[in-house]
Design goal:
alpha+beta; Alpha-Beta Plaits; 4-stranded antiparallel sheet; disordered N terminus; 9 strands
Length: 338
């Protein structure tokens, strides 16, 4: 190992954090230590380190189903297992509020943050896609969104939002979605503030061969497949170690669950909800989905305990999670095991 004075301050902090974290956990099963440490190292190795993106994952996966609000102090505590400093959390939360994702409520010196109405709508769609069961059939219809020719910064933002919602770009200003209805698409455009500047159509091609060409044109499935394989190779060791253990301590389980969804959503939200007929043979995304569902189930209960012990609202403890959480991944959190 390199002497600590030969590494960067950020990486030195990560090393110290990893050692302290696993010492404090008093974990009974050593085989789990290395895979979970590897997840932390990989997270801290990302450049730039996007603390705000991880907080979005914590809100969407953990806070939203338990009332949607959390005090700033307990959010700092929830972020601590990931090595995020208090200052970074405060800065990221302020930025998310400025961008319209979060709204703050103050009670004396304490602050509580919750998703805005706009944020809740976008999270609801993301939740449906991340945790939903992948489609097995398709009616052959595409929903097309056509943007006006006017360019500028706003069009670039709309393009990114449409891709985040599962649209593929066929040409400048023309986007296709394989699974949403016109009503759903209209609602998304209203949320994005561009409903009056876009046209929506429902259409079909001349057949399956054309549909496959359209899918290949609208989405870089080869690049998405490579990212899924890296994801699988990152989390498979954790799943294998769990099979040989008695499970994770609550804090470590929360860390695994959050990083699992954090990395999965970044890939999955770029993937269209295509039926098997339009996907490459032996699509690796199916394997990634099964791995995510199984590992999520294995750490879910322990992670919820950490969330209950650590998270809080101004009024007190976080409310219990609703039944919809246990329906994630087709009921994975309530029925599957590693």
């Amino acid at each position: 190992m390199l002497p600590l004075h030969n590494v960067t301050q950020e990486y030195r902090t990560t090393i110290i954090f990893c050692v302290t974290f696993f010492s404090c956990q008093n974990m009974a099963v050593p085989p789990l230590t290395k895979p979970v440490e590897a997840l932390l190292r990989r997270f801290h190795g990302q450049r730039p380190l996007r603390g705000g993106s991880l907080l979005i994952t914590i809100f969407g996966d953990a806070i939203a189903p338990r009332g949607g609000a959390v005090t700033l102090g307990s959010l700092i505590d929830l972020a601590r297992p990931f090595g995020l400093a208090e200052r970074l959390v405060r800065t990221a939360v302020a930025r998310l509020a400025a961008e319209g994702w979060l709204a703050a409520t103050r009670h004396g010196r304490r602050s509580e943050y919750r998703l805005t109405e706009n944020g809740r709508k976008l999270f609801a769609e993301a939740t449906r896609r991340i945790y939903g069961v992948n489609p097995t059939s398709w009616d052959g219809q595409w929903t097309l969104a056509v943007l006006p020719p006017a360019g500028g910064h706003s069009r670039g933002n709309i393009r990114e939002e449409l891709r985040w919602l599962g649209f593929g770009q066929l040409s400048p200003g023309v986007y296709a979605h394989p699974a949403c209805t016109l009503e759903e698409a209209r609602g998304w455009l209203v949320t994005l503030g561009c409903a009056n500047r876009c046209w929506l159509f429902k259409s079909a091609t001349e057949g399956l061969a054309a549909d496959r060409r359209l899918a290949a044109e609208g989405w870089n499935l080869a690049a998405i497949g490579r990212r899924y394989r890296r994801f699988r190779d990152t989390f498979a060791p954790v799943q294998a170690a769990l099979r040989e253990s008695e499970g994770l301590a609550p804090q470590a389980a929360f860390l695994v669950r959050t990083l699992l969804i954090h990395e999965y959503r970044k890939i999955h939200l770029q993937e269209p909800l295509l039926p098997p007929a339009l996907l490459p043979p032996e699509w690796v995304g199916t394997e990634a989905y099964e791995l995510t569902a199984t590992l999520y189930a294995a750490v879910f209960a322990a992670a919820e305990r950490f969330l209950t012990e650590t998270g809080a609202t101004i009024a007190g403890v976080l409310p219990a999670a609703g039944a919809e959480v246990h329906a994630r991944f087709g009921g994975a959190s309530g029925s599957r095991a590693a």
